[in-house]
Design brief:
about 250 residues, about 20% helix, alpha+beta, globular, LolA/LolB/LppX, signal, 13-stranded antiparallel sheet, outer membrane lipoprotein receptor (LolB), chain A, 4 helices, single chain, Sporulation_related, lipoprotein
């Protein structure tokens, strides 16, 4: 009887490990689908919507792997030239108006990026969903006609993350993240991100519109439209430097 019980426990343990590994592979593939396996360059427009006003910001973005990224604001004119650099887990901003580079302290990571519902931490922790969380498949659901894995991400012990839980819906066909829910440490929903307008762009079938909805601020949302993207382009590591932060175009 003991031998049978031990065998059953071993089988369940191995099955759980395999499922967990599969979930991690799915998240990694979905992440690389949007970032590129090596690098990417993109042009986007972000629309910040509030109950009484809205405004748009256009920007260019370069990334290499999960540790290097640079963002350059192209519009509106009064904010054109502002740039943001990420190297590993550190982030700097450049403002040409005051001719100054500022390193963002940890206390600023939870603040809205350019006044949007996206935070500086969202930009900084691009690698986070793959390396800082334990992944598990917790179901399957249909989102906008696409069969999806429902995957729950729980932070690893001592991981430098702000979310107590993330739930993602990733399509089985193209590994696209169509929906993400972000919860705080008390498991209260903070925001939901929805992806739509799936098109062929940059040689891949991917969503081109992302809508971020804060849970406790009805009427507030941020919409990002992907206008152009190129994957796995040649970029030297030296491009992602404080010197180039002030010169990137």
């Amino acid at each position: 009887m003991l031998r049978i019980l031990l065998s059953a426990i071993l089988i369940l343990t191995n099955a759980w490990a395999a499922l967990s590994q599969n979930a991690t592979d799915i998240v990694r593939k979905a992440d690389e689908k949007m970032r590129g396996e090596k690098s990417s360059y993109s042009e986007m427009t972000m629309r910040i919507v509030r109950p009484k006003w809205e405004r748009s910001i256009s920007f260019k973005s370069w990334s290499k792997g999960t540790e290097l990224s640079l963002v350059y604001i192209t519009d509106p004119a009064k904010e054109k030239g502002q740039a943001f650099l990420k190297i590993k887990r550190e982030m700097w901003s450049w403002n040409p108006t005051i001719n100054r580079t500022v390193k963002l302290p940890p206390s600023m990571l939870s603040q809205g990026w350019m006044g949007s519902d996206f935070t500086n931490d969202d930009l900084l922790n691009q690698r986070s969903i793959v390396v800082d969380y334990i992944h598990s498949i917790t179901g399957t659901e249909n989102i906008d006609g696409e069969e999806c894995w429902k995957i729950t991400l729980l932070p690893k012990p001592n991981a430098p993350v702000v979310w107590g839980k993330i739930v993602m819906w990733i399509t089985k066909k193209h590994y696209l993240i169509l929906k993400s829910e972000y919860y705080d440490e008390d498991q209260i929903l903070v925001k939901t991100e929805l992806a739509s307008q799936i098109k062929q762009i940059g040689g891949r079938t991917i969503p081109t519109v992302y809508e971020l909805l804060p849970a406790e601020e009805p009427g507030n949302k941020t919409i990002v439209e992907l206008n152009k993207i190129e994957f796995n382009i040649n970029i030297n590591d030296s491009f992602f430097s404080l010197r180039n932060l002030t010169q990137a175009r």
